[in-house]
Every structure is written in structure tokens, then in C-alpha cells.
Amino acid sequence: MESNFKMECFRHKLLGNKQCILEVTSDKIIITNISDQPNKRNELDINYNLFVDFKVKKQQLYAIGLITNKHHWYYSDNENLINLKQILGARVVFKGVNTLYNPLQQIGQGTFSNVYLLQSKLNNLEYFACKCLDKAQVHEKIGRQGLFDEIQAMVALKHQNIAELLEVFEGEVSYYMVMQYYDLEFTDILKELNNEDIHIIFKQLVTAVNFMHENGFMHRDLKPENIMFSDSIYFLKLIDFGLTTRDSGRCKCGTPGYVAPEILNLDTKINEYNEKCDIFSLGVIFYKMLTLDDLFQGSNHEEILENNARCNVNFDMLNGNQKIPKQAIDLLKKMLQIDPTQRIDSKSILEHQYFTVEEQTHNNTINSLNQLSRKHSSVLKILSPIQKKNGMFTSPFSMHEDDCIEKEAIMQPIPTVIMKGGIAKSRTPGRTRKLSKDTTKKYQTSDFEDVILEIKQSNYRPPKPSQLSEMYNK
């Protein structure tokens, strides 16, 4: 087996240190004890049953712990251990998230997960996003295997327009998925896009989805909230793979207003759907980019879903809009076919005339993208150590020995949506306000408890990484 990485290390023993060579191949960690004759050799499979942790001192790694039936520490220099950590990445399960990261602020919230902004303890200029999931709810709703299906999908889908999962941690009561932190949200810049911007963004989005489909995956939850950018609109990142699957579609899932009609009208006993469901969701997103309107509207979830399922699309309004290219309208019609067998596929979208026409000059876009990035990355107030001490921010890592993250940040409550017999109902009590699709989250066919607390609305927004670095140092 060819070695992808090799380093010298040692183990502490009562009779003296044992010198070792640690190698990483495509699927194994091989440790050779060179202090003994003959040399002893131990092989560990790289999978999610292998647990790994680290020792840190003065912002430097100095030991790695490999845990199977026993826990063995191997000591080496910081540079080698950093490289080893990056190579293992999300292919193993790390322990001790608080050893490597400090939590700064909650920046997102899902059905049974929260997203936190983290600062690296090894380099305080590096910031990451961390999806935190309650283990009890994960095991009850999707199972440990369901979570690691999402993880394996993200690991397999290496693409410039797909968010990269860096590490997976497991605590006593929580799972943590550490990813790159992206500061520019698609929903914030949507109203300021011109036709050139739309062309640039949508091509990247279709390219990402086409890559998934070519590798046998369907996303099943494409929507504006799952599109982010790294620095500018030229670096789109598709996020949130909680519903991604390689299996045949036999489960009703997605977000009302963006779900393909074959999913909403699915008879799970006799029907199934395929990756064409993503094409319909792309069409709904494309429609919103071109018109700034929601394709399927309603004052509540029931109306949105009913209109979504009927899929009555009036293209007359688009034909009369001189600002929308004719090629875009033609592509939109092919994507929003109610019959998935008549719907265009992702490869054909990229070959459509909308993309094959001569590329326009992007000078206006180049000028505007910096404005977009600066304007919509609002500054988040980073709490000082004194404010933390006075109780304004409680570190979710330091509160619990099991590294459990609790919802300590002030967030806007999001209604939980469940699916029964084709009707979605809000489970958030005491709410009578009009619900838009922007506040709608995923739904599943099985019931689940509403875990969203009624808490105050916050005006905080996550900053750009460069702004965070400057503010934190000050």
C-alpha cells in the first residue's frame, strides 16, 4: 500500500520512549514500532469507528491520541500533527472539540441543530462554522447512520462550489460538524443582482448540482438559504446536505415552495422519484432570481404546499418582461415541467443556449461584487472577556464536561413543520403572524417534537472573517 503521509513519533513508556513511524494510506493508519526487534506493526482502519483526539499546549499540537479498544498517545511536532489532522479530516471521528476551538456566537438554527461561529485555538485568525446536533434527537429521528450518510456525502462531494466538511467531532451528547465559514449570503444580495450576476451565480449552482448527480447523489433541499458565497459571487458554495441521499427517492422531504411536485404527490408504497427533483428546485430558485418573486405563494404553509403541488406556473408575465432574456425563459420552462420525465437534466442545462451564448463582459459585475460583499457582511459585536465574565455570553464548551453546546444565543424562533397526509402544519404555539417561505424549514413524514424556544429576536449578523480578526484582536 502506498503511503500518503509519514512521520516520526514516539510513545511514553516507563522504561523509556518507544520510537515509531506513523504512516497513512488510502484506508489505514499503520504504526511501526522501530525501537523493538523485530519491529512491531499495528494497522488501524480509517473509518467512523476510529476516534482521534489531540493534546494542545501554547497553541501547538504535541500529541495525537488514537482510540479503538485502547487509547494510545503518539508525540510529535506541531507541523506533522497539523498535516495529519488535515489528512484524516472528516474520515474519522474526533474527540474534544473544546480542545481545538472556542465558540463565539450562534449564527444559525435548524430543526434539531444549531450552527456556531468558532475560532481556532491553534490560530486565532482562523474562523469556522460548526453544525451542532443533539445526539438523542439524531438517534431518534435519523439514527447515527443517517448522520454519517450526510457526512460521507460531503466527504465524497469534493467540488469548488460545494461546502467542504473539515472535521467531525463526537461528544457525550452532541455531534459537531466543522466546516469553512462563509460570510456572504445569497438571500441578502438577491435583490441587487443584474442579468450578468444571475448568469454567473446560476451557472455555478447548476455545475455543483450536476456534479452531485453525476456521482449518484440528489440534494433534495435546494433553496436560496442553502446558497452561500466565499468573498464574492464568483465563489458560490452549496451547503446543508442533511437530506442528501444516494438511494431512490421514497421519502417526502424538502422545503415547501421549492419541493418538486412528484415528491408532494408521492405515494410511498408504489412511487419513487429521482434526481430530477433537484432540477425543479433549481427552477424555482432561477425564477426568484429573475423576478424577485416567490413562484408558489401563500399566507401559510398549507397554501404554499397546495400551490406547490398543483404547479400552476404562468409564464405570460415573464414573456412580457423585457429585462428577462428569452433564453432564460425557455430554460425555466424546461426546468419547471410538472412531469419529471419531460424535465431537463443538469447536464443539458449547462448545454442550453442560456449558457452557451457568447459570454458577456462582466465589468459591471466585477465592480458590484465587492460592494455586495462589503454591504451585506454586517459587523457582529464580539463580546469581550469582561462581558463573557459578566454572563453576557456563556461558553457552550466550558459549561459541560461532555462538550455539549446549548442554545445560549438570542435567535428568532423558527416554526417547525411536519408532514401528515400532504398537509404541513406549524407546531410553534401561540403564533398568528403570516409565515413566509423564508421562515420555513425542512419537514419529514415522521413526527418530531418542537424544540425551538420562544426567545427574543436578534439583529446580530455574522461578520466577514477579516472583520472578526480585526475586532477580536482589538
TrEMBL record:
Residues 454-474 are annotated as: Disordered. This is Protein kinase domain-containing protein. One of its GO terms (cellular component) is nucleus. Residues 456-474 have a biased composition (Polar residues). ATP binds at residue 131. The keyword Nucleotide-binding applies. Belongs to the protein kinase superfamily. It comes from the Eukaryota. Keywords: ATP-binding, Kinase, Nucleotide-binding, Serine/threonine-protein kinase, Transferase. GO terms for biological process: mitotic DNA damage checkpoint signaling. It comes from Paramecium sonneborni. Residues 101-355 form the Protein kinase domain. It holds the Pfam family Pkinase. The keyword Transmembrane helix does not apply.
